[in-house]
Every structure is written in structure tokens, then in C-alpha cells.
């Protein structure tokens, strides 16, 4: 179809055509960025934790009285053993932090003793010998800790012992610190005294507290340090279907063996993840609502204006029909017209989308909008435009040729 | 009442300048009923537009009711249109969304007039055209002749000094046209000044005086007493 | 005349109910979204203690090692115990308090109530007067009680209700962990938002329910909450008393700008003095932000909330453009009516007024308000821990009204202007 006459006609309705183009441009700019924000959020909330999430429950306790003669180290070991003996519990551990948990332990690590700046800030798991089994983290290289490698946390805290002699780190951290080299056997410094040797690498182990940087989120290390009760929480591994029963049994068991402690929290790790990303889910939901509302408003706007044009040009359409234009040609006329306007809007909108993305990067430390979002947004709006104009265009096509001979 | 002297109206495009009116002079006295005739494109409508202050002339002078109105601004012209001129259109031009009463009310709304005063005038105007019973009807519910009578009532409601009619019977069949014409004659007898543009020589003949426009210039044909007497006999 | 136009507007809007609904809904939705997000932002970025936030300061010094030192970076966010005590005891400010968050288990006398844990604040005597905490009964403890490690506790109204059934409980005994405390005061409802004096805990929810002397809590080894930053080994493993672990918040009240200036100088002197004793290896890095500066510095308003505000205004812009287009179409459809009105003698401004009134028809405003209320209700259903704070206040109500009016008029401006440009005519032309 020849577009010259369409453009000529559009020039006579500059304002209305410009308004639709502006609306499309704004929608395009917003929708491209919002779609990206949504994917970004969803990506974040699906980040792998590296642990068998659907098999874990965690229990946080608090002591009621002063420790009163009870050695917290001994108490911790006995409580853990009591929990491990609950039917259905495959493994139990006491640990300083859990993925998606409230507390997080972080340490700056160095690659040389006399290094002034730390090489990376790393999430530190202080684990006993049951931790790897209980968490179900996947060891992809190296070995587990041997029993002689474990230290007591109180000794570490009080500086009575050297740093741990060995550690297990995540694949992400290994690549971050050592690039493509084999990390096993490499030395890492936790302070400026003695090095800690990397003896194993796990596929993933997410740290409790992370932002939008997923590399940073997966930068964790496991240290062979046994905790006392004051700093640790229990994690139990069981069958997914068994978790509620295990939680109930664990509460009961702890009341028996540790009457002067109360249970603060006893939940599944899945619920911890769900809580952790609640804000992201709400935001993603909100963003989806924005996109849908924008599409609806824009579509209705196009329907409204196109209907107005058709009505205003009824006589003109009638004359064209009388002069031999087919229904299809009338239909195509309005479809082409819409396509032209939407295209102008999209071109402006893509520029705006890119500008907004730059601003968002600057303001909210978001990554740059990937370019492939632009054609996606463009196609969506072209479709939207064609869909919206269909009904008015069909109405135009059904104007009878006799309209031409009738006076207004 | 209406006096145009050496009036000109030119339309400029990028290429040419065309004159719709050129050296156009006419004088309509108070109480006259003048018919303006002429072939299509002769400048009748331009004359009426300028007479009704819808357009401004590009040259010459125009005096209305003793006041030079050829150089007035939009607001002043609006005020004069509203206060001194009543329009009767070929296509009636009633506002379809308003009922009869509200249509007649429109010009009065643009004057600072009390509600009671407006009501009185609307009542009188509709009485005059014989449509008092149809206040709540909408234009679409009336026949063409009735619609034109409403339009006349609307023109009369503001008690204008000058009535301008543009082919007032052009959209009506002959029977309705005759009734509308009689109404105009009655209004004229009651003292109104009427200028009517028409291309119908029979209708023109019923006016007091005929002005013929050809190529934007006036050819005054003077009074037409014979035909007028015939009309009187018919009535 | 306005009444006439309002009447005409109402008729015109009723004649095209679908179009009217679309315009009102679009504007209403845009405004509803904007007002909702603005309200949340307004609440979250509010001044928690407006009467004296400009006189309350959060002194910052930098005792950290030279490792990881970057010139120009902010000083430590909290103070160490030795520094906190030194500053506290120097008494150079009108009021000063050292504090940390913590948690304790309450063992009620009433056997029917199970032991439960509460959030606690361990602080010093000036805390209550400095932050204008209102007392329902009794008062805070004295500075001497800090020195004496007194077993005194101030509880909140809600805890008083829960444990003692309400009433004046001053003098009663509250058992925390395994120690008996004497209730010296019951706070009235008090909830500075955000929780400015300690941003480690949830910033908009979970407020502490018991307040007790820091000295007492440390003696009894009560559990602490918050963040701790250690930059060097701690002698004998005692992080709490270590000069190398910062974990306490220190606030001062300085009633005049001169005093604030003097205090800044004092902090510099203190840093010099510490360096002469072998601490503070970094160059002096002293800051003295007010409450609002501190909140700003800590980016206390979630970025999501700001993003939502921008987003909702972007959405409103689309709705606005949309409505301008629809109104333009609607007005120009009445070309004929306008031409006749103009011929009959309506001046341009009257036509403009007529159509602007139609644009401003209050429907949008009313609906905007409704949707704002609805939106807030929706936010309240969601999980965000600050959501329960969202409610509509008079400022926001007024703002909604103004925004609705401004949007409606703005969307009508161009169409009404175009409408009044229609030339008066004798013949209705259609193309």
C-alpha cells in the first residue's frame, strides 16, 4: 500500500497522531525497563542456595538464665546429638548461620599475610563435622574435613589458637580469587598470622545476606570450627514430607534435654527463602501490574482515538468506497496508519528506554538494560497497536458506499 | 443599520491572491428586508460572513448600527454577534445534544441575564414560532421546518437588531419553505431588519429589495414591489 | 456561568459513558498509584523526632587500622566500648547516651504465660530525656544507676499490659533471663519512625519492649543484637570490651550550633589524643551528622519505594497523554456545536472555559481519592514490614485532591485550547 496519502492525511491530524506516538513512546520506554526489572528480580529470587532446601529445618534457641555451670560447648554437642536421634532426622548440625537467615558472618580474606587491602569479603560458615551432610552441599573437588582439623570457637575467639588450617570454598569464590587455576592447595589468609589451605570446593553455598550481585552472594567459605550454644543454631535434614513432624518432635525434645532454653524459631528453610524474597516478589507483582495497566490504558487510548477518526471520516470513507475502494483496502488504510504512528512512537520510546536505563543504573545500581529488550518491547507494542486498531478499522471497512450520497 | 463601503476580502495562498469581494458597497437601512442573490461562488457567503462578523474584511469599511466594526478584535466581535445579530442557518445548526428550550437558551447564556429573564424570553420566542408545546423535545425529534422555526426562535430570543439568514429554506421542501418564509415576513413586519442570502429568485422576489452579487461586486436591482404585493395577496 | 458549564459537562460526560469511564479510570488509576507510592515515601522519609532532630547528633570517629583504608570514606558507623565510655563520661554534650540493641527472655510470674523473648535496648540514663520518650508511669533511671549496674528496667505500655495487665507497675518486679529487675518506668506509646537511633534492627518494625542499663546488661552477659565490626584480633577474646570492635551507637544532644562546632573540635582532639596513645592509625576522620543527615547517609528509605514513585508518575504521564488524546477527540467531535456557539456570540474564552470545566469534572478527583485509599489498603495487605505505617493523612488527602485537579485540567488544557480555536461558521462542515 502506498503510504504517501496516509502521511498526507496524518499531517492534517498532527496533534492527535502526535499524542498517540507520545503515549506509545512513554509506554515503550517504561515497559522495556520494567520488564527488565521483573526478570532481574525473579532471577535474584531464584538464585541457587547450594543446599537441599526442601529437606532442611532450622531451630534457633535462646537461653533463659545465665549459663550456670553448664559448659555451653558440651551443652551444644549434647543437644545436637539429641536432635539427631529424633526418628526421621537424617543428619543434624550446629552452625553459625544459614542461607536466607537473619544473622550473617562475614570476613575479609587476603592472599598474602602482608597484603594491605582485602581480596574479597566472604561469608563465613563455622561448621562441625556434620555440616556438609546436613546441608547437602555438593563437594565437587577436594575432600571433606578430617576430625583433627576442627577447632573450638571459644579458642578462636579468644585468640588461643591459630586460624583453622583448612577450609572449603565455593566454586564462585575459587574463580574470584584464583581465576582458572586449581584452587585446591592454595593458601588464604584470614588474618596476618598463618594461612588457611583450601582443601575442597563446593558447587554453591549462598551467604545469608546479599544484594543484587549474585557473584558476591555465592562467595562463601566453610571453616572447621565447632560452635558453642550461644552462637549457633541447629539445622536438621529430613525427608520433605517429614519436616513438620520433625519440627514438632524437635521442640519437644529440646524442652526435655534443655529446659532452660526456649525455642525462638523452628521453621523450614523453604519458608526462610520465601520470607527473604517476599519484598522482591511483591515488587515483581507490582511491576507486572504496571505493565498490564500500561498496555490496557494504551490499547484503550488507541481504540478511542481510532474510533474517533473513523467516525469523523465516515463520509470520506463512503466516497472512497463509492469510487471503488474494497473493504480490504479501507481496513489496510487504518492498519497502515496505526503502524506508522506506532513506529514513530517506538523509535522515540527506544531512545527514552535507553536513557531511563542509564538513569536507573546511576540511581539504583542496576545493570544496563540488555539491548534485546528493545525489539521485544517494540514487537509487543506493534502487536498491541494492530490489535487495538482492528475493531475501529473493521468498522471503517463496513461503512457502506451509499454514505457518500447522503448529506450529513 | 448595515453599511459596507469599498469592502474587500482577499484570500491568500502561497501562489495566488484571490478576491472573494472587491470594492463591495451596500447599505441596508433599519427595517429593510434585503435579499442577496447571486450565482454560486459569487461571494454571497463571504458577504454574509463579514456582515455577521464571522470574518474580517481585508479592506474597506463596515459600519453596523452606526459603529465601525471592521477593525474589532475577536471578543468585541463576539459581543456584537451575541447582542445585535441573529443568525438563521441553512442547516438549522441546532445543537443536537440540547433540547428545544436549551437550544434557544444558548445565546442568552452568553449575556449576563437573570434566569427569570431568560425564561421569559425563551417562552416568548418559542410562542412566536408556534412551538411552545415542544420545549422538551430534541432537534432530531422534529421535522425540518420545525427545526428551522426553533433556529428562528433562537435568533429572535436575543432581540437582535439585524437578522442574517443564509439560505433559510434551502434544506426544506416547498411547503415548509413557504411557512418559514411567512414567519420571516411577519418578523419583518414587526420591525426587524433582515438580510437574507439565497439563490432562489422566487424567494428573493418576496424581499423588499434585491441585491445581486456577481464576482464579488454588487449589482443593486432595487425594490420589487409587484412581487411583494403578490405575496401579500397569497397570505 | 460555571453552573451552566458544569451542567453541560455532566450531560456530555453522561452521553459517552464508556469514554468518560475510560478517562476517569485512567486518571484515577494514575493518581491512585502516584498518591499511594508518595504516601509510603512520605512516611518512610519522615522525620522521626521533628521537635529536636536538628539538635540530636550521631558522633562518628574512626579507630580502625590502616588496612583497607580508602581516603575520603566514611568513618566507622558505630563506636567501640572504650571510645563510647570515654565520650559518655566526658559529658561534653547537653545530653549523651550509649546504647545497643539486644534480646532477653521474660519469665512472667503468671504461670499461665509461657516465657517469651523480647527485643531490648541497653542504654544509659539520658536516653529517655534526650529522645523525648513519653512516660505513662514513673521515669527512667539516674546516671548513678548506670554506675551501680542497677537492676532497673523501663518497659513499654504493651509489655506492661501483657505481663502486669496494665496499670501503674512502677516498683513491680520483672524477671529477665534469670535476674529480677525493678520496673522504674512505663513508657507511653512511642514509636519513632524510622527507628533512627539504631538502624541495625528492622528499620520500620519490631521495636524494643524493655530498656535497661547498658552496664547491667553487660555484667549479666545479656545477648546483643546488631552488627559488630572487628578489624583486629581481640585480646583475650572479649569482643565487647575490645578497642578493635565497634558495635555501640552513641548519640548526643547539642542545643546550639556553637556547641555542635565545639563538639566537633572535641572529637578531633579526642582522635589526636588516642593517636598519641598508639590507637587511631588513620588520619582524623570525624563526622557529626544530625538525625536527618544520618538517615540520609544510611539510605534508610528502601530504593524500591523511590523506584515505585518514579514508576507511578511515569504511569500517570501515560494516563495523562492518553486522556489528552481522548479528550481532544471528544471535543473536536463537537466541532459543529462549537462553531454555532461561536457564531451566536460566545467569545473564545467562554468556549475554553466550557471545555475546561468538562475536563475538570470532579469525577477524576473523587475516583483518584477512592483508588488511593484502595491502593493503601492493598499495600497494607502486603508483607513489607513498613506497610502497616501507611495510612492517609490530611496533607496527602489535599495532595490527592490537587493532583487530581491538576491532572484533569492539564489533560483538558490542550483539547480546550484547540476547541476554542474552531472558527465560527454558518455551515457545519464535515470532511
UniProtKB/TrEMBL annotation, chain A:
InterPro entries xref list: ABC3_permease_C (IPR003838), MacB_PCD (IPR025857), Macrolide_Exporter_MacB (IPR050250)
Topology term for the membrane: Multi-pass membrane protein
UniProt xrefs under Pfam families: FtsX (PF02687), MacB_PCD (PF12704)
Family per similarity comment: Belongs to the ABC-4 integral membrane protein family.
Protein name as annotated: FtsX-like permease family protein
Any single GO CC term annotated in Swiss-Prot or TrEMBL for this entry: plasma membrane
Organism listed in the record: Solimonas terrae
Methyltransferase among keywords: no
Keywords, comma-separated and alphabetical: Cell membrane, Membrane, Transmembrane, Transmembrane helix
Segments traversing the membrane: 16-38, 282-310, 338-360, 372-394
Residue ranges of domain ABC3 transporter permease C-terminal in the record: 290-401
Cellular location(s): Cell membrane
Superkingdom of this protein's organism: Bacteria
Automatic annotation (TrEMBL), chain B:
Alphabetized GO MF terms: ATP binding; ATP hydrolysis activity; transmembrane transporter activity
GO cellular component: plasma membrane; transmembrane transporter complex
Keyword terms: ATP-binding, Nucleotide-binding, Transport
UniProt cross-references to CDD domains, sorted A to Z: ABC_MJ0796_LolCDE_FtsE
Domain ABC transporter: 2-235
Family in the record: Belongs to the ABC transporter superfamily. Macrolide exporter (TC 3.A.1.122) family.
Name the record gives this protein: ABC transporter ATP-binding protein
Lineage of the organism: Bacteria, Pseudomonadati, Pseudomonadota, Gammaproteobacteria, Nevskiales
Automatic annotation (TrEMBL), chain C:
Record has Cell membrane as a keyword: yes
Bilayer-spanning residue ranges: 21-44, 309-332, 352-377, 397-417
GO cellular component, one term: plasma membrane
Taxonomic lineage: Bacteria, Pseudomonadati, Pseudomonadota, Gammaproteobacteria, Nevskiales
Leader sequence segment: none
Pfam families, A to Z: FtsX, MacB_PCD
Domain MacB-like periplasmic core: 20-265
Location of the protein in the cell: Cell membrane
Matching InterPro entries: ABC3_permease_C, MacB_PCD, Macrolide_Exporter_MacB
Membrane topology: Multi-pass membrane protein
Annotated organism of origin: Solimonas terrae
The protein, known as: ABC transporter permease
Gene Ontology molecular function, alphabetical: transmembrane transporter activity
Coiled-coil ranges (or none): none
Location of the ABC3 transporter permease C-terminal domain: 311-423
Amino acid at each position: 500500500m502506498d503510504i504517501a496519502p496516509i502521511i498526507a492525511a496524518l499531517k492534517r491530524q498532527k496533534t492527535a497522531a502526535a499524542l498517540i506516538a507520545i503515549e506509545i513512546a512513554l509506554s515503550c520506554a517504561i515497559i522495556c525497563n520494567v520488564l527488565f526489572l521483573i526478570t532481574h528480580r525473579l532471577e535474584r529470587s531464584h538464585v541457587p542456595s547450594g543446599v537441599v532446601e526442601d529437606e532442611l529445618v532450622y531451630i534457633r534457641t535462646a537461653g533463659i538464665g545465665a549459663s550456670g555451670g553448664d559448659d555451653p560447648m558440651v551443652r551444644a554437642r549434647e543437644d545436637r546429638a539429641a536432635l539427631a536421634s529424633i526418628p526421621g532426622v537424617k543428619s543434624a548440625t550446629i552452625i553459625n548461620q544459614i542461607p536466607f537467615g537473619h544473622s550473617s558472618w562475614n570476613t575479609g580474606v587476603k592472599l598474602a599475610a602482608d597484603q594491605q587491602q582485602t581480596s574479597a569479603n566472604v561469608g563465613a560458615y563455622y561448621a562441625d563435622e556434620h555440616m556438609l551432610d546436613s546441608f547437602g552441599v555438593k563437594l565437587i573437588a577436594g575432600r571433606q574435613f578430617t576430625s583433627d582439623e576442627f577447632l573450638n570457637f571459644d579458642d578462636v575467639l579468644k585468640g588461643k589458637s591459630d586460624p583453622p588450617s583448612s577450609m572449603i570454598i565455593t566454586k564462585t569464590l575459587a574463580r574470584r580469587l584464583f581465576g582458572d587455576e586449581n584452587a585446591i592447595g592454595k593458601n588464604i589468609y584470614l588474618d596476618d598470622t598463618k594461612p588457611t589451605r583450601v582443601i575442597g570446593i563446593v558447587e554453591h553455598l549462598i551467604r545469608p545476606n546479599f544484594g543484587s550481585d549474585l557473584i558476591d552472594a555465592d562467595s562463601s567459605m566453610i571453616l572447621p570450627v565447632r560452635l558453642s550454644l550461644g552462637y549457633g543454631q541447629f539445622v536438621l535434614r529430613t525427608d520433605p514430607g517429614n519436616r513438620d513432624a520433625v519440627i514438632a518432635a524437635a521442640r519437644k525434645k529440646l524442652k526435655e534435654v534443655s529446659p532452660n532454653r526456649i525455642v525462638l524459631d523452628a521453621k523450614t528453610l523453604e519458608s526462610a527463602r520465601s520470607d527473604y524474597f517476599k519484598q522482591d516478589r511483591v515488587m515483581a507483582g507490582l511491576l507486572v501490574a504496571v505493565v498490564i495497566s500500561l498496555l490496557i490504558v494504551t490499547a484503550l487510548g488507541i481504540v478511542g482515538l481510532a474510533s474517533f477518526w473513523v467516525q469523523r471520516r465516515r463520509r470520506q470513507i463512503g466516497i472512497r468506497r463509492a469510487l471503488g475502494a474494497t473493504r480490504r483496502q479501507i481496513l489496510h488504510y487504518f492498519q497502515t496508519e496505526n503502524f506508522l504512528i506506532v513506529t514513530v512512537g517506538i523509535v522515540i520510546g527506544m531512545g527514552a528506554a535507553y536513557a531511563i536505563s542509564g538513569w536507573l543504573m546511576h540511581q539504583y545500581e542496576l545493570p544496563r538494560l540488555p539491548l534485546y529488550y528493545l525489539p521485544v518491547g517494540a514487537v509487543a507494542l506493534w502487536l498491541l497497536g494492530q490489535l487495538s486498531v482492528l475493531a475501529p478499522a473493521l468498522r471503517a471497512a463496513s461503512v457502506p458506499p451509499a454514505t457518500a450520497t447522503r448529506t450529513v | 443599520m448595515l453599511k459596507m463601503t469599498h469592502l474587500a476580502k482577499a484570500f491568500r495562498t502561497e501562489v495566488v491572491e484571490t478576491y472573494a469581494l472587491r470594492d463591495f458597497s451596500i447599505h441596508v437601512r433599519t427595517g429593510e428586508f434585503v435579499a442577496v442573490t447571486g450565482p454560486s461562488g459569487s461571494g454571497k457567503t463571504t458577504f454574509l460572513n463579514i456582515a455577521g462578523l464571522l470574518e474580517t474584511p481585508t479592506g474597506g469599511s463596515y459600519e453596523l448600527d452606526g459603529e465601525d466594526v471592521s477593525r474589532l478584535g475577536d471578543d468585541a466581535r463576539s459581543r456584537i454577534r451575541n447582542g445585535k445579530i441573529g443568525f438563521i442557518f441553512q442547516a438549522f445548526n441546532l445543537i443536537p445534544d440540547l433540547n428545544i428550550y436549551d437550544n434557544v437558551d444558548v445565546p442568552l447564556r452568553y449575556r449576563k441575564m437573570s434566569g427569570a429573564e431568560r425564561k421569559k424570553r425563551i417562552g416568548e420566542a418559542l410562542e412566536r414560532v408556534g412551538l411552545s408545546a415542544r420545549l422538551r423535545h430534541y432537534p432530531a425529534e422534529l421535522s425540518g421546518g420545525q427545526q428551522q422555526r426553533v433556529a428562528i426562535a433562537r435568533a429572535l430570543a436575543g432581540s437582535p437588531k439585524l437578522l442574517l439568514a443564509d439560505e433559510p429554506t434551502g434544506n426544506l421542501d416547498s411547503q415548509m419553505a413557504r411557512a418559514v418564509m411567512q414567519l420571516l415576513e411577519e418578523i419583518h413586519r414587526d420591525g426587524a431588519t433582515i438580510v437574507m442570502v439565497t439563490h432562489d429568485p422566487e424567494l428573493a422576489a418576496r424581499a423588499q429589495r434585491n441585491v445581486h452579487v456577481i464576482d464579488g461586486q454588487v449589482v443593486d436591482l432595487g425594490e420589487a414591489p409587484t412581487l411583494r404585493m403578490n405575496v401579500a395577496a397569497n397570505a | 456561568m460555571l453552573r451552566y458549564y458544569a451542567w453541560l459537562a455532566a450531560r456530555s460526560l453522561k452521553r459517552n459513558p464508556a469514554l468518560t469511564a475510560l478517562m476517569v479510570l485512567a486518571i484515577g488509576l494514575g493518581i491512585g498509584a502516584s498518591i499511594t507510592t508518595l504516601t509510603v515515601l512520605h512516611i518512610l522519609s519522615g522525620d522521626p523526632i521533628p521537635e529536636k532532630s536538628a539538635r540530636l547528633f550521631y558522633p562518628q570517629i574512626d579507630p580502625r587500622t590502616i588496612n583497607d583504608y580508602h581516603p575520603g570514606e566514611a568513618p566507622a558507623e558505630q563506636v567501640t566500648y572504650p571510645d563510647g565510655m570515654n565520650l559518655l563520661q566526658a559529658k561534653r554534650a547537653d545530653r549523651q547516651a550509649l546504647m545497643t540493641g539486644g534480646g532477653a527472655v521474660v519469665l512472667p510470674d503468671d504461670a499461665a504465660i509461657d516465657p517469651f523473648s523480647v527485643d531490648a535496648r541497653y542504654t544509659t540514663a539520658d536516653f529517655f530525656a534526650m529522645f523525648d520518650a513519653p512516660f505513662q508511669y514513673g521515669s527512667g533511671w539516674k546516671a548513678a544507676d548506670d554506675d551501680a549496674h542497677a537492676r532497673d528496667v523501663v518497659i513499654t505500655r504493651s509489655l506492661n499490659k501483657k505481663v502486669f495487665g496494665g496499670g501503674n507497675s512502677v516498683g513491680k518486679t520483672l524477671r529477665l533471663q534469670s535476674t529480677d529487675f525493678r520496673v522504674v518506668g512505663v513508657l507511653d506509646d512511642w514509636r519513632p519512625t524510622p527507628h533512627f537511633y539504631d538502624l541495625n534492627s528492622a528499620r520500620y518494625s519490631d521495636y524494643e519492649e524493655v530498656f535497661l542499663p547498658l552496664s547491667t546488661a553487660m555484667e549479666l552477659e545479656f545477648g546483643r543484637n546488631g552488627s559488630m565490626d572487628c578489624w583486629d584480633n581481640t585480646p583475650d577474646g572479649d569482643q565487647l570490651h575490645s578497642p578493635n570492635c565497634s558495635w555501640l551507637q552513641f548519640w548526643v544532644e547539642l542545643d546550639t550550633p556553637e556547641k555542635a562546632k565545639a563538639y566537633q573540635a572535641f572529637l578531633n582532639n579526642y582522635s589526636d589524643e588516642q593517636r598519641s596513645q598508639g590507637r587511631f592509625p588513620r588520619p582524623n576522620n570525624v563526622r557529626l551528622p544530625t538525625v536527618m543527615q544520618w538517615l540520609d547517609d544510611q539510605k534508610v528509605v528502601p530504593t524500591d519505594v523511590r523506584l515505585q514513585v518514579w514508576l507511578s508518575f511515569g504511569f500517570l504521564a501515560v494516563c495523562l497523554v492518553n486522556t489528552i488524546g481522548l479528550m481532544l477527540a471528544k471535543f473536536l467531535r463537537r466541532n459543529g456545536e462549537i462553531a454555532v456557539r461561536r457564531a451566536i456570540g460566545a467569545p473564545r474564552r467562554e468556549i475554553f472555559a466550557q471545555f475546561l470545566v468538562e475536563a475538570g469534572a470532579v469525577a477524576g478527583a473523587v475516583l483518584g481519592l477512592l483508588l488511593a485509599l484502595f491502593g493503601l489498603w492493598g499495600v497494607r495487605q502486603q508483607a513489607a514490614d513498613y506497610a502497616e505505617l501507611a495510612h492517609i493523612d490530611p496533607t496527602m488527602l489535599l495532595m490527592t485532591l490537587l493532583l487530581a485537579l491538576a491532572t484533569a485540567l492539564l489533560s483538558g488544557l490542550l483539547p480546550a485550547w484547540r476547541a476554542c480555536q474552531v472558527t465560527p461558521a454558518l455551515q457545519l462542515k464535515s470532511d
